[in-house]
């Protein structure tokens, strides 16, 4: 039975940190449990106080069931039993039990018990003010230190005081206990990064989503903005699958060879990074040993050549790196072009409902940031992350092989701490970057909306108000930007502290070995050169991680645009429109823009080829909606329309003159030619003549080359409508849809265009939405729409005889027209009376 004789063994002291080519067991087994207990007790206690004071108990339905969490708890309990069993075994077998063994066992049991308790608290309670997800920094730090401490045992690989020789039964048992600790702490650390058993989303968000209707919870914003605290790595593989088509240029052998060549250059860079410090060491050793000039000159030339190939320490500006960047330009341009073209094509395939609800500024910013972020992401992953990881692995292997395990362990511990803290801090500051993007979009949207509504701003003298709104948006953006930049500075300082500590420890150890005669001066130069060369990309590794995460954040909005599904799709068996055999038909159609408010209710009508059908009725009755459904802008919710044909074929046979005409910011000639891109200038002018706008165009200084401005703002409403009519005339469609086509025209111009439209619409199916009933007297059929239903149908004379809604509308318009005519007559009479001088009668004077 063992008993405590002294705190350390007889031949050691706690002040001796290095003993027989290894760490002193007394020092090690005192430092490790003390550090772990300090973290668990002090930080863990503060953590538990916050959870008890400011937290709330989670409802069981929000706590996910996870077998991995059960495994996490089991590992922690196994470690507790291991510490207890190890201390009991040593007490039973050792004649003299050192005091540090008892301290190690007791402190470790207390620390891990506190960690298990903290783990259970995090599963059952949640901080309402905590807006992140996953385990707390206290637990992650505890597991990281525990795992790093077990790795410190490798430093004592050659020490006889440790268990590596496995010469006797005690060493074999100690090795088995260490292997159990090493495996369990490593698994706990890496499982802890995933945080099983905890909600994957903020708890308050889960509560809010549970309280509102599921359907309403899915009504997200236009770009589907994710929650500000959701990890950017969520859905990582889904994002990677979207990126794969842009990584490999399919169908282009030349670009594929360029990609392979660039990857080959990347491998050459890795080899150069290894040989540069080796040749530098050889130069120092040859100078020290007094080697011949020929040998020294050869080594120096090879070193300079390698340095020229490598560039500034990390290959940032070397010959190989520059060549790789040069050849990669074509691949990058291919990726940029494919992304923008596919996204642009996808946006045009979306429904009118989506485009009516979009914010143009948000969409443009998302496209710009998304396309640029894809190029950045591919560049960082392929040419920064993978090479840096490769350099770190190669360096660890090289240091262990050429020097000893101590140097490899220094690099490994620094890398582990560096990456762990970088991930934790970067995940924490993600919400600031995402909020900054939101405020940036908001500021740009306000600017775009204000400039597009320039005239409205002037009408209401609201310039100061618009400037104030924009300034407020900028201030909110700058507040988020400050948080982003401040958290970035904190992260950089943390990274510099870790890198500096590792460099100091390695340099001191290497210098010690040089003074002991185990290393040469060139070896110290090799270590210093190699470690600085390694830390340079490692220092950038955090930047690469942030950039990749920022790229994911910037791509989120663009991915949401890609995920927007087409509302209107062609049916599987849809074919081309055979106009001569087809007809326009609505059969019991129901439609609504939003749930709960039906616009069309049981609408049925048939338009035969060559007929003219007029839709009349009060404003908001659903006339324009029927036009949009005919053009397949929306899908009907009930009934059916003619939908067994391809949209492109259907729209190729339809010409539309909308109520609100929007023109491209181009010349009048190109705006008219948009009806048929292949039309000649003569055909464009003939269409303008038919639309009664040719003379007006020729009156402009630049004629048909006149720029119409954004959305056609330089033209009047009537001029824009006539350009739209000319565009439709040029298209020469078989089906014509006129939605208040002459609403913005004066009476004389309307009569001229009506005569032109009558010629154009001859022998063509025509559907007219009209407000002035006098323009549709000759229609083959008139449908009176009221409250989303067809109230009356028939020809003009028939509807007048019925004395219904149409007759009432006709009477009201006639009375209004007579009133306007009499008002004009009276006004002319008054003007003529004022112009005539007062007359006098001679006969009257005589009387």
From TrEMBL:
CDD domains associated with the record: ABC_6TM_ABCB6, ABCC_ATM1_transporter
InterPro entries: AAA+_ATPase, ABC1_TM_dom, ABC1_TM_sf, ABC_transporter-like_ATP-bd, ABC_transporter-like_CS, ABCB6_N, P-loop_NTPase, Type_1_exporter
Any Gene Ontology CC annotation: plasma membrane
Reactions it catalyzes: protoporphyrin IX(in) + ATP + H2O = protoporphyrin IX(out) + ADP + phosphate + H(+); pheophorbide a(in) + ATP + H2O = pheophorbide a(out) + ADP + phosphate + H(+); uroporphyrin I(in) + ATP + H2O = uroporphyrin I(out) + ADP + phosphate + H(+); heme b(in) + ATP + H2O = heme b(out) + ADP + phosphate + H(+)
A single GO molecular function term of this UniProt record: ATP hydrolysis activity
Keywords annotated in UniProt: ATP-binding, Cell membrane, Disulfide bond, Endoplasmic reticulum, Endosome, Golgi apparatus, Lysosome, Membrane, Mitochondrion, Mitochondrion outer membrane, Nucleotide-binding, Secreted, Translocase, Transmembrane, Transmembrane helix, Transport
Record-annotated ABC transmembrane type-1 domain positions: 260-550
Amino acid composition bias (Basic and acidic residues), ranges on this chain: 825-834
UniProt biased composition (Polar residues): 837-847
Name of one Pfam family that matches: ABC_membrane
SUPFAM superfamilies: ABC transporter transmembrane region, P-loop containing nucleoside triphosphate hydrolases
Tree of life domain: Eukaryota
Membrane spanning stretches: 27-47, 68-91, 97-116, 137-155, 175-193, 257-280, 377-400, 406-426, 497-515, 521-541
Chief location category: membrane
Keyword Mitochondrion (UniProt): yes
Topology class, membrane: Multi-pass membrane protein
Domain (ABC transporter): residue spans on this chain: 584-812
Disordered as annotated region, ranges: 812-847
Compartments reported by the entry: Cell membrane; Early endosome membrane; Endoplasmic reticulum membrane; Endosome membrane
The protein's assembly and partners: Homodimer.
Family, per entry: Belongs to the ABC transporter superfamily. ABCB family. Heavy Metal importer (TC 3.A.1.210) subfamily.
UniProt-recorded name of the protein: ATP-binding cassette sub-family B member 6
């Amino acid at each position: 039975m063992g008993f405590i004789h002294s705190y350390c063994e007889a031949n050691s002291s706690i002040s001796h940190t290095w003993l027989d080519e290894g760490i002193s067991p007394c020092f090690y087994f005192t430092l490790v449990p003390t550090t772990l207990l300090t973290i668990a007790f002090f930080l863990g206690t503060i953590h538990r106080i916050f959870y008890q004071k400011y937290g709330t108990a989670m409802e069981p339905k929000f706590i996910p069931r996870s077998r991995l969490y059960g495994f996490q708890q089991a590992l922690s309990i196994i470690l507790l039993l291991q510490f207890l069993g190890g201390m009991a075994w040593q007490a039973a077998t050792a004649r003299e039990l050192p005091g540090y063994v008892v301290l190690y066992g007791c402190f470790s049991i207390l620390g891990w018990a506190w960690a298990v308790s903290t783990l259970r608290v995090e599963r059952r309670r949640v901080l309402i003010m905590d807006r992140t997800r996953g385990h707390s920094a206290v637990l992650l730090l505890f597991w990281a230190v525990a795992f790093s401490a077990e790795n410190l045992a490798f430093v004592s690989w050659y020490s006889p005081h440790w268990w590596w020789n496995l010469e006797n039964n005690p060493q074999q048992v100690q090795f088995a206990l260490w292997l159990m600790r090493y495996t369990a702490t490593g698994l706990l650390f890496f499982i802890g990064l995933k945080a099983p058993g905890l909600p994957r989303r903020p708890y308050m968000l889960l509560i809010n989503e549970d309280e509102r209707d599921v359907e309403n919870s899915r009504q997200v914003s236009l770009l589907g903005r994710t929650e500000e605290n959701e990890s950017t790595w969520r859905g990582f593989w889904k994002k990677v699958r979207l990126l794969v088509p842009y990584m490999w240029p399919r169908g282009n052998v030349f670009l594929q060879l360029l990609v392979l060549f660039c990857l080959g250059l990347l491998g050459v860079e890795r080899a150069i990074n290894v040989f540069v410090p080796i040749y530098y060491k050889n130069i120092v050793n040859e100078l020290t040993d007094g080697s011949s000039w020929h040998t020294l000159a050869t080594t120096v030339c090879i070193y300079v050549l390698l340095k020229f190939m490598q560039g500034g320490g990390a290959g940032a500006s070397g010959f190989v790196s520059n060549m790789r960047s040069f050849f990669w330009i074509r691949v990058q341009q291919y990726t940029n072009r494919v992304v923008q073209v596919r996204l642009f094509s996808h946006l045009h395939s979306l429904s009118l409902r989506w485009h009516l609800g979009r914010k143009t500024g948000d969409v443009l910013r998302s496209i710009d940031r998304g396309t640029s972020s894809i190029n950045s992401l591919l560049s960082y992953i392929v040419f920064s992350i993978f090479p840096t990881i490769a350099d770190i692995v190669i360096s660890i292997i090289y240091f262990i092989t050429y020097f000893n395990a101590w140097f490899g362990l220094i690099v490994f511990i620094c890398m582990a701490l560096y990456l762990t803290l970088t991930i934790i801090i970067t995940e924490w500051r993600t919400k600031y970057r995402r909020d900054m993007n939101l405020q940036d979009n908001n500021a740009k949207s306000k600017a775009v909306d204000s400039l597009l509504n320039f005239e409205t701003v002037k009408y209401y003298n609201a310039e100061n108000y618009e400037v104030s709104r924009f300034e407020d948006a900028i201030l909110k953006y700058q507040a988020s930007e400050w948080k982003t930049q401040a958290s970035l500075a904190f992260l950089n300082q943390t990274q510099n502290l870790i890198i500096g500590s590792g460099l100091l420890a390695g340099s001191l150890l290497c210098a010690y070995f040089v003074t002991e005669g185990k290393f040469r001066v060139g070896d110290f130069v090799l270590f210093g050169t190699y470690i600085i060369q390694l830390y340079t990309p490692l220092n950038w590794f955090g930047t690469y991680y942030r950039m990749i995460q920022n790229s994911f954040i910037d791509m989120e909005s663009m991915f949401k645009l890609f995920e927007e599904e087409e509302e209107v799709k062609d049916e599987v068996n849809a074919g081309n429109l055979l106009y001569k055999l087809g007809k326009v038909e609505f059969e019991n159609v129901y439609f609504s823009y939003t749930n709960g408010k039906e616009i069309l209710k049981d609408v049925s009508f048939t338009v035969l080829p060559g007929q003219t059908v007029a839709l009349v009725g009060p404003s908001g009755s659903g006339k324009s909606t029927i036009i949009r459904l005919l053009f397949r802008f929306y899908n009907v919710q009930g009934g059916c329309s003619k939908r067994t044909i391809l949209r492109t074929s259907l729209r190729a046979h339809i010409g539309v003159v909308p109520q609100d005409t929007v023109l491209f910011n181009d010349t009048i000639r190109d705006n008219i030619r948009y009806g048929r891109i292949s039309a000649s200038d003569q055909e464009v002018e003939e269409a303008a003549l038919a639309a009664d706008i040719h003379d007006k165009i020729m009156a402009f200084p630049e004629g048909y080359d006149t720029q119409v401005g954004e959305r056609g703002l330089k033209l009047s409403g009537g001029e824009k409508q006539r350009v739209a009519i000319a565009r439709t005339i040029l298209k020469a469609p078989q089906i014509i849809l006129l939605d208040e086509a002459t609403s913005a025209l004066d009476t004389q111009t309307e009569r001229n265009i009506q005569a032109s439209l009558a010629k154009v619409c001859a022998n063509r199916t025509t559907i007219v939405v009209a407000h002035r009933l006098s323009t549709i007297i000759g229609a083959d059929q008139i449908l009176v729409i009221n409250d989303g239903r067809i109230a009356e149908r028939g020809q003009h004379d028939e509807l007048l005889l019925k004395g219904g809604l149409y007759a009432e509308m006709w009477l009201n318009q006639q009375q209004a027209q007579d009133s306007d005519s009499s008002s004009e007559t009276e006004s002319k009479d008054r003007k003529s009376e004022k112009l005539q001088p007062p007359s006098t009668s001679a006969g009257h004077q005589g009387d």
